[in-house]
Design a protein that fits this description.
By secondary structure, this protein is mainly alpha-helical. The chain has two helices and two strands; from the N terminus they run E-H-E-H. Helices cover about 45% and strands about 5% of the residues. It has a two-stranded parallel sheet.
Length: about 70
Amino acid sequence: MHGENDYRTPFSQTEEMYTALKRYGKTTRLIRYPESNHSLLKSGNPSVRIDSFEQVNAWFGHYLHGQKPS
């Protein structure tokens, strides 16, 4: 997950990490949030916070509890 207005970590670094994980055959997903900064939880847009929580909960549900992704 990455906010497009993140001035601390450039988006290119996120893309590099995503690409490296894919090349090593790892299951990965890139989620991009427009108009969000480094701290998605402090984003001014509540829908970004809600979605980021849902994404993390889905990850835990899938990888810890064996739930199918929605």
